[in-house]
Design a protein that fits this description.
By secondary structure, this protein is mainly α. About 75% of the residues lie in helices and about 0% in strands.
């Protein structure tokens, strides 16, 4: 393991963004090394500065949520995610979409959340498709629940990621709040 770490360090110091990203991820999550916020951020930042949008996204998420070794800095994390999303990174778009829908780290804005999820899902991002399907079914960010639209997003995933799609649907069916929200919205539609 020590030799592998030496090689990764040498590659990262020579300017290879993927090596820097791998080191950042290792130090962030304590994989093969002791968790170290300073080193995690250093290597993520180096990869990000070299144009690796996935590193910018990971650093942004770590800062937004304060997970792993890196402490929470919501504004800085948001800025990094927004920058990566504006450059078309589907993972950043999906993450911002979920953040806006949940409203935990940013002010809840279901319309903006649905928009980010749509952008990511349109690029084929699988978890964004599931989140978007869930948003359609719960009418989060949309005027009306739309089961047909939700099924369009899930259709391709059921074959490729069947277990994840099935688990999402199961959660929708067993979560009382989710079911109640759909049921109430459908009753309102039929009364009008």
């Amino acid at each position: 393991m020590t030799r592998g770490l030496e090689l990764l360090n040498a590659a990262a110091e020579s300017g290879f963004p993927h090596a820097a990203y791998v080191l950042g991820d290792a130090y962030q999550h304590g994989e093969g090394v002791e968790p170290d916020a300073e080193l995690a951020e250093r290597w993520y930042q180096q990869a990000s500065d070299a144009g690796a949008l996935h590193a910018r996204t990971e650093l942004g998420l770590a800062l937004m949520r304060g997970q792993g070794a890196i402490g929470q800095d919501v504004q800085r994390g948001f800025d990094l995610l927004q920058d990566a999303a504006s450059q078309g990174h589907a993972g950043a778009q999906a993450s911002l979409g979920r953040e806006y829908l949940n409203g935990d780290n940013v002010e809840q804005d279901t319309e903006r959340g649905a928009s980010y999820l749509y952008e990511a899902a349109s690029q084929g991002h699988q978890s964004a498709r599931l989140a978007l399907a869930r948003a359609y079914l719960l009418a989060r960010g949309f005027e009306n629940p739309n089961q047909q639209q939700a099924m369009l997003w899930l259709e391709n995933l059921i074959d490729r990621e069947g277990q994840l799609a099935v688990e999402t649907l199961r959660q929708l069916l067993i979560e009382e709040d989710a079911f109640a929200a759909i049921d109430t919205e459908l009753e309102t539609l039929y009364e009008e």
